């Protein structure tokens, strides 16, 4: 949060709407965007910090891993 983010590669931030660090994640995304970083931010409503670990029981978890896959594919092509 306190570093110079200029020149970082594309960044994917996925966070839950009930995430303990939601405000920090939003601030990081804003700071990165202001530094010219290609930022993708997704807030999964009503999800907690570790929602992505609940594969395959939770659809939001499955969706978040698909988002990672798509992000990597988009930036490696």
Describe the overall structure.
With 77 residues, the chain is an alpha+beta fold. The chain has one domain (11-76). The chain is 40% helix and 16% strand. It is built from two helices and two strands, in the order E-H-E-H. The protein has a two-stranded parallel sheet with strand order 1-2. Strand 1, helix 1 (22-34) and strand 2 (39-44) form a beta-alpha-beta unit. The radius of gyration is 13 Å and the shape is flat. The N and C termini lie far apart (29 Å). The model has no long low-confidence stretch (mean pLDDT 96).
Low-confidence stretches: none
Mean pLDDT: 96
Order of helices and strands: EHEH
**What gross morphology would you assign?**
flat
Percent in strands:
15-25%
> Biggest sheet, strands in spatial order?
1-2
Rg, alpha carbons = 13 Å
Number of domains: 1
Distance between the termini: 29 Å
Q: How many beta-strand runs?
A: 2
How many individual helices?
A: 2
Helical percent range? Answer: 40-55%
Structural class: alpha+beta
Largest sheet: 2 strands, parallel
Structure described in brief:
By secondary structure, this protein is of the alpha+beta class.
Which secondary structure elements does this structure contain, and how are they paired or packed?
Elements: E1 11-16, H1 22-34, E2 39-44, H2 59-76
Parallel strand pairs: 1-2
Annotation keywords:
flat; single chain; alpha+beta; two-stranded parallel ribbon; 77 residues; 2 helices
